[in-house]
Amino acid sequence: MENTAPSIPRTHHAPPRPKTDGAPASHPRALRLIQISDSHLFAHPEGRLLGLNTRRSFQAVLALALDGGTPADGLVMTGDLVQDETAEGYAYLARVLEDTGIPCFCIPGNHDRRDLMEEWLGAAAMGPIADNRIDGWNLIFLDSTLPGEDGGRLTRRQVHHMDTLLQRDPGPCLVFLHQHPLPIGSAWMDTMGVTNGAQLLAVCDRHPHLKAVICGHIHQEFSVSRGHYQILGTPSTCFQFLPASPDFALDARTPGYRELHLHPDGRLDTRVVRLAAYPEPLALDATGY
Ligand SMILES: [Fe+2]
């Protein structure tokens, strides 16, 4: 695909700064957190993947998520933010996130440039391991990406640091990362998960206040229970991969996002919400992208 990037003034539009204070819970209701993943945006407004304008699809999913009746308290983006890894793509995303007016937390995927994320998304770009409190809940963000690789890996330091964070604070906790930490039953996709995901899950197994490990990358809904917590995957805001397929295959299911309702007593309710239809036709017979 050839795109001519539009000229965007080099002005930073940093999204709202995530709340990082340790203030006591002030929400009598459950917190409403939105997870959006794998937007695969381009610098050019008409940038497309598999026939789909990824900005248009992202905007449609975000509008659906923000129009959920109850105001959203935060937005998590779990990687593959900008497909062509351009400053213009991140500048566009920064403006959109700023317009939401809510705290935003972004982690990189294998289709991202960490330096550009930090430059354009400011405080919304999470570091290699980041710990944020949103009312009584802790949100841990892990950068699982490896430069030049589709699969991911966590460093020993990240795994150890996460263990320390979980020991230190007994509050309910969610962990977010891009690649999936265990096989999802799709052979081609399972060649590019987190290679040492078992180490991550071994730490999670030891901390009963951990409620879920939540990934992007797999472009499909996924949910499995493992003892006291869930491992969750979420649709992309653009094209979807067919679950359980041994080879690359697209799914006709529509783009969507994940609702996460974080109750004051530590309960987590979650579900995936999808668009009623694709914003425009998708090349479903594609054999790659
Ligand atoms: Fe992706």
Automatic annotation (TrEMBL):
Pfam families: Metallophos. Gene3D superfamilies: 3.60.21.10. CDD domains: MPP_GpdQ (cd07402). Keywords: Hydrolase, Iron, Metal-binding. It comes from the Bacteria. Residues 31-220 form the Calcineurin-like phosphoesterase domain. Residues 1-26 are annotated as: Disordered. The keyword Metal-binding applies. SUPFAM superfamilies: Metallo-dependent phosphatases. The keyword Acetylation does not apply. GO terms for molecular function: cyclic-nucleotide phosphodiesterase activity; metal ion binding. NCBIfam families: PRK11148.1. Belongs to the cyclic nucleotide phosphodiesterase class-III family. PANTHER family: CYCLIC NUCLEOTIDE PHOSPHODIESTERASE CBUA0032-RELATED, PHOSPHOHYDROLASE. This is 3',5'-cyclic-AMP phosphodiesterase. It comes from Candidatus Thiodictyon syntrophicum. The lineage of its organism: Bacteria, Pseudomonadati, Pseudomonadota, Gammaproteobacteria, Chromatiales.
